[in-house]
User: Fold these one by one.
Assistant:
Number 1:
Amino acid sequence: MTLPFDVETFSKEKLHATLIALSHGKNPAVAGKPQVRFLLGYLETLGCRTMIVERGYTDRNFLEDYAAYYVRCFEPYDRVCTRLHFLAKEMDGKAVSAAIVADDAKALQDHYLGFVVVKPLPLTVIGRTCLRPYPSTEERPRSYPTVQPQAVDLYGLKLSVDTLPFQEQDREVAACASSALWTMLHSTSRLFQHAMPSPVEITKSATAHARVDGRTFPNGGGLNTLQIADAIRSVGLEPFGIGVTSVPRLAVQSDEYSESAHSLPERPPGEPENETPAQSVEDAERAAQMQLELKIAVHAYLRSGIACALLARTTDDVGGELVKRGNHAVAITGYSLGDKPSLGYGTSETLFAAARLDRLYVHDDQTGPFTRFLFEDGNMLAAEDFSAPDVDRRLAEPVNLVVPLYHKIRIPLRQVVELTVALDETLEAISGIAGLKDRLEWDVQLIGLEALRDNISASNLTSAVKLDLLTMSLPRFLWRATASLPGKPVFELLLDATDLLQGKLVRRLVRHDPKLCDQISYCLSLSKEVLPDTLRPTIKAFYDARSTPAA
Amino acid sequence: MAKKRSQEEIEAEFKLWLAQGGTVEIQTRMARAKATSDGFARSTRVRTETLYEPVAF
């Protein structure tokens, strides 16, 4: 009896041979693609030993694209995909068959790394990819707030993988922005219960208005920021843009790696060849502050589970020469916090925990899922996993961050930063008398009520405080600003993210160090006449918290 | 070990500090906080020219 699947020992040769065999026209170039190189290395790092080839897999996303585009080609492209499953355990066909018959999902689940849908196209074969992220270790703590359990049905075996789907752009129905949007909307479709569009639907909705040049399909030209915003609106969400560019300049005219290289533009006539040291220091400081703003925004929004789109300009280091490439969009899916001390933000030098972010994990359709973007000096990110012939290093200079928000999340980050900075300066002024021995570090995040309650349940707060907080009436989305001294939180402010811009925002102060909070409260109450009105609800929250159960 | 201060002692100490320049210090710091948050708001506003990039993403 011929079964519709094969079980293979995982190896580079086997992966290459399988992908080539599944591509349209059995294209050998598939094996040399950067996405395939990355996939191989990634799976080896995860300890992959076995590959199950599930033939005849119908993928909804590809089917939508097929129906809208590929089916009309003269060349007869196939509409059925193949799904490759990966296991960190040696198994043979007999063992897999036995697990299927016995409905023994556990035999596979403990070692299940995820799957890749292979599309029957000539080159861009990497379809919906759901793989486990890199594990978090003591040396490298990693956080992936955007991953969610993805159910997998393998001939009746109910498997699951915690992931966020990835797929490469096919340059026909989707460019890199469409792929980033597709990943981003996967994260929000479950959070905010909206329909999940396919790449072709994303591109169509993005280009429905305001497209004055180029064509919708093939979508080699990509999407601009306004079109990305339109695609987000099409699913009922609000696009929220955050500018994160430090140097104003025009984009280059090519976004194709394979096209001829463009060197950096020459300095305009009359401009001095070298910057003065003072200018150079000023630019470096400016770039560092811009990078910090990006970190604060990513750290604040990403932890609500929303994958954000990072739009960037890319530059390649080719033998020491910096060569400008094109614009590129990736979806941010995770981050890692280093132990470097926080850099103060702005003239107030407010310490944000986000400053310790030293790398991002992004779904980069030019490379793969959960690829590493390392923060570099000068508001640059280095695409650590990017590989291309002759390129030593790829750098990305952030332009905009786009966050798809549920319409009820009305309070923007800048309003929370305003409150945080004002409170930080106030507490710094009164620190001597209030008993604050060190500068506070602020951790700002957007959080859903359900996640907040999960956090409270798992916290070290006393049962009385937990009961009080878990049963209180709170809005569906909150901003949470936690102030900590080295190693211990002092208090957290819960702000209503759904409030009016002119609202009082502050819903509750949670005391982690009640004694210190009371001392702060005495001082704040006495200084309210000299403090701005924006701090009054916070002062009241400190006052009200005195009568709540002690932590 | 430092002596535990009562609420009244903290308040008295704080009033004295306010009278001896604390008020001015708070006002100075509030101006600095405003400059920082205004800077954040200005800097993170999406620049119009980036909306119409000649090369898309």
Number 2:
Amino acid sequence: MNLPELSPRVELSCGLSIGYEGRLACVDGRDEGIVLEGGTHYLLARNGRGKTTLLKTLAGVLNPLGGDYSCEGRCQYLSEDLTFDRELPAKAIFKAFLKKGKYAEAIDLAQTLELDVKKPYGQLSTGNKRKVALLVAEFSVQDQGHDVLLLDEPFTGLDTFSREVFQKRWNHNQDGVLRLVSCHPDFDSMEVNSSVLITNCKIVHVAGDGEAQCWGELKNQLN
Amino acid sequence: MQLYRLTLATMIQRKVWIIALFCALVLPIVLPYLTPYESNPSLIEPARAQAAWGCLWVVTIAWLFFQAARFGDDTARSGLGGYFLSSGVSGLSQMMQIWLACLSFLLPLVLVTLAVCFIGAMPSDSAQAQMWVATNLQYAALFLLVVTPLMMVAVSVGSRFGSTVGYLIPLCMSIYGMYGVGYLAMMTDVQSNLLLDWLYVVSPHYHLADLTPRLVFKHGSMLSSEFLQIVVYFAGIKIVLAMLSTLTFQPKAAT
């Protein structure tokens, strides 16, 4: 894998504690901390365990309750409830966000995903609205890499075909982008190379060491 | 400048700007003819200027202030503010981008108003024409000095308290500054009250920016020294409001 020289990196030091008023989860003080580099990492946990809180903290939108973290790279946090003006068509949204070349690529992928780019955003289905936000994030990354994409449940409402298109793109494109994707996989055989789990109020990193693990094995580790 | 482009695209897409343009361009031509102008046709030109500036005030207060408040609210609630914050766009930059997008619609409207006054209501006498141009340019400068900080207030208050409050505050401020302060002056004349005197002093005297009577009654332009004094006064208010807006703006909804 040829990563660009400026490789994105997310580091969660031991003792990092996240939450609002009460602590939701922390990186165990006995561990060495968690380091994530370019590639796709899945953030897995049951509901209400702190996936969104962790992503918001890493994005700098929320302060941690304690401990340190670092997020090296151009960060983009795509929240689950990110929406655009209901009268704007996807085409206009892409035009506002993307450079010319990237805009054309986004339109191409939108066609593959059967997203009507001329339809007002408010008239799109939940899944198609999600595609708009994902395409914006995907094509906003810089050519030379060094981007950190924090995606909060990007597959919600997305059909299997579209989800696979994105996953294939992430697997095939060695663009040096670090993606931390929170999700609830819906089939046991889904391969996960690297995952960050939040279980028993602890944030742990499970790396496959080159061998992909399956969601079926990982889900047993979630409390 | 992604948020600026997105806000601009949204305003274009909503198409209300067509009504605003219509109000600024067509109403000043049509409205004077609805008056009994036949009794004195020479009044039609000043009436046109009066209608042009009146329409501009109404369009700005009714439409642009509301748009500004709504964009502030939408940015905070839609998650866009958080998205831009995560990608390194500060709250101040976000507020400025939304404000600039609204300003991009305001400036052409001011130019249209000036064009109506210059083309449709210019006095034939060259000395008067010169004075007419100067008065209108002074009016445009004072108008912008008054409404642009209020638009910033609409964006910032809208982001923190929602679009309704974000709209009502600059609306009330502008109406109070234009008309309310006059009533306050009458009250302070009738009875001496320290509190009312103090309130009068700290109130924004936006009525000073309304040069419509000068145009209608052809009083001529303001003296440079007088004009500069008012510019400095409004610039001071602008700085205060800009600082308050920066503190108030909230790019993400409270959690």
Number 3:
Amino acid sequence: MKQFLLKMWSHCVRLTTRWPSIASIVPFIPVVAAWWIVTELQIFPRAFLPGPAEVVRSFGALVYMGILPAYLQDSIVRLAVGAFWGVALGIPLGILVGLNQRARTALWPLLLFFQAIGDIAWLPILVIWFGYGLTTITVVIVYTVIFPVVLNTVLGVRSIPITLHRAAQSLGASRIRMLWEVVLPGALPNIVTGLRNGLGYGWRALIATEIIVGTSGIGFLMFDARRSGSVVEILLGMIILGILWYIVDSWILAPIERATGQRWGLVTR
Amino acid sequence: MGAGDAMKDLTIRNLSKTYFDPYAGTNVTAVHDVSLKVEQGEFVCIVGPSGCGKTTILNMIAGFIPHTGGEILVGGRPVKGPGPDRGVVFQSFALFPWRTVLENVAFGPKMRGIRKVEREKIAHEYLALAKLTEAAGRYPAELSGGMQQRVGVVRALANEPDVLLMDEPFASVDAQTRMTLQEELTRIWQEKRSTVIFITHDVPEAVFLANRVVALSKGRVLEEIAVDLPRPRSWDALNDDARFKELSGRVLQLVRSA
């Protein structure tokens, strides 16, 4: 038995060094296997816990009908639009608060106060103001993304050593150029962290918002499936959420981190 | 340097710095009535123990902190804040981690609006001066401390400042590397004839590098000692040199007795 396990392990190591992307799939194999075994043993009724095969079949059917691609696109576009505005407003605000003592005194308490009123806590009043539509969803996403981005940007700006400011000044950099040459790159590793947190929270807020006010999207798909009692589609929705986040993180955020903070030796690998 | 060039000298008259210590609730005088004249092309070391006010003096010359009394003139113009006429080399190197070695050295010329091709040519020249050509494309974090500080020195020089201010630049590298860096600095200085103010607590270092050593204690100038050792200087030659030992001994006695 021990021999067999060791052999499997060495196979595994050899395979993942040759194709690194496989390494990220390997941890899911026992999870899916356990799921499959539990459903095959019929511990729970099939209608409550369908197996992997049924979920894959449901995936095929929803893709074939065009529902899943359309919903997926809706969700991703909403997150992208919300994230764009969250970042476009959050980074300048964070730099202002980080650099300016007066702005910090004035805005910091407000930031902490409004951060505490969680994204979804705004939904009741937003629905009254903007109705069940894209505006409400966008506001919630922007609101969710902006706080981690602002707070981390402030942290990043304030963590830049004063000697770097001084070095740039005595090499002739003007205040405006300092922003681009010192403040922004110096804060970038923290900004990426803020973005990662913001997108994570935003993604969750999006699903919650779609469940409540949506007429399309992955969150809506899952809630609609509950109405018709389709556990398969609910499970499918959950799996898609996980996969999508994995893709965003490993294809977009991680490469940015590798190219900036890690390359510059500002964050440990 | 032609006769038409502006003088690249430094004049400090009755400089003082007093600040309020909120913890003690009193005014503290860190620098007391310091006067100093550094001629163009001179290498002056200010030496003294920790807390004697030497870094405060340098920060005031650099314009990083305001002075509370007296005046500082660089090339005849009073200092008001940091500026490219005074290049600074920091103890912590202060290289931009997101810029390659080449881009770090080209930073000053870039701020002056010099075109990319031109400023990279300048940067390459200075990198060659410090034997850093190989490292041009690397990031500071990939270099040893000694190499990082070489970059720090040529980055300041590449901007052709009137005065070069060095704040214990070799204090955070190992002893062997420090000796090499000291020798290289004297070589580069002889080539460029920059006006240099060098802050250190290391007496032999001060005597090795300087034309003139200013001994400082408790915010006051104790004495100025001219160093007439021949150049080029090397540690191999000076280690057993009687004159070097005599000068070092005198400065050390001054600094310790105060």
Number 4:
Amino acid sequence: MRLAKARRTPSAKGDDRGRVVNRTSGVNRGVRVRRVGDRALLVEVDSAEEVAALHAELLRRRAVGALPPLEEIVPAARTVLLDGLDAPDALANAIPTWWPLPPVTTDDGPLVELPVRYDGPDLAEVAARWRVPVAEVARIHSGFEYRVAFCGFAPGFGYLTGLPERYHVPRRATPRTAVPAGSVAVAGPYTGVYPRTSPGGWQLIGRTDVVLWDPHREPAALLRPGVRVRFIPEER
Amino acid sequence: MNAIEVVRAGALTTIQDLGRRGLAHLGVPRSGALDGPAHRLANRLVGNPPDAATLETTLTGVAVRAQAPVVAAVTGAPAPVRIDGRPAPWGLPVPVPAGAVLDVGTATHGVRSYVAFAGGIAVAPVLGSRATDLLAGLGPPPLSAGDVLPLGTPAAPPALVDVVPQPAPPDELVLRLRLGPREDWFTPEALRVLARARFTVASASNRIALRTEGPALTRAIDAELPSEGVVLGAVQVPTDGRPLIFLADHPTTGGYPVVGVVPEADLAAAAQARPGTPLRFHVVG
């Protein structure tokens, strides 16, 4: 707690005041390390790109034994959670000294290609919000490469970044009670594919037959943090 | 191979073990027994390792018929235990003859009893665990009458014990709370309320979260919190302001601020607190 408090800056309140990157010492004061209970740390950075770089750095360090034993490394929108640490204080002190981190480049990580029929029930609404003909949505959406930023909501549900801001759309005002498995959907900065039938509030633009989640398969989740994703339009 | 047949499933009986670890980054909750110490004790009494699967009941117990002789033990929420109608001890290893029905009745206090069988419940594991996860829908479904559950081979003889102390029913649930990571999203007054007010355990509580009734906590920051990873014991405050405490089937990420974290050692008591139990937080830092 004490360590985390010492690093807290006004930017923890949701703005960027107080963010200082001290390049001469290599210590990034823009990173906030917050204590979470007795055994976890929440590392907060300023962008999805920095989360990706921090997550990759944590996996590199763990692979070479340069990270204390821990149970979970959970990336999210602006944070990475480190859970199951026996002595979080030392790591909390060390993490800010890791900057600058090597950025994640577009060809890092395994690539998954998902064939998609762009025939979702919200296709017309998304086309209207994008101000393009309905037939253009498939070409535009499949024209970008995506990356799984993090998982959540359901096992194997990945939050994919890569859609430029001008194509961000809000969630539906009323969520659907049942979204079919394989539905390709967009909301805010993210694209997602529902791994199984579940309630959902995202705008549905298409459908894939690929099984995204199978707990009896290795790997169980096709879309894991760090995986690159391309959507391949299928003929309708 | 021995097996048990479910005669009476009770209100909600699930198979539990130590849960799934290391998969939170895929959106897989940890799951596992809500009252970890009671689960471990039940296993120890029948000679099982701690990760053997047990039955976790909810208030109204469970009844099963043994296909072949097996040693069983009931721990957690104290409840009347009967074998073919005859009283048997709670908290001790008891032999169940072939064809006999082991009946765990309604808990006298507490919520969840644990029933271990020598050899453990040997349903097929999913992602390394036999636990039923009610949020993600992983593992076996809750028990239904007529289900037949295979048992493993006993690894060790039952424990030699004379008596296991029954936990006294607590008048009040007091949970330690370490503030953070998002206590700065709440007003100073909200943090005072959190430390001093008396809440009660809400009836909407389940394996995902212990919900509270009582004062609402007001936020200092109205912005939407981007989704972030949450831990077991996290005290999350949704839009209604009523804190909830995440238990084993909690979601791996959440978009509401976590004001503090209850240490894992206190969560067994939380899992045994009935709706209406007074609840206070003891802020430790």
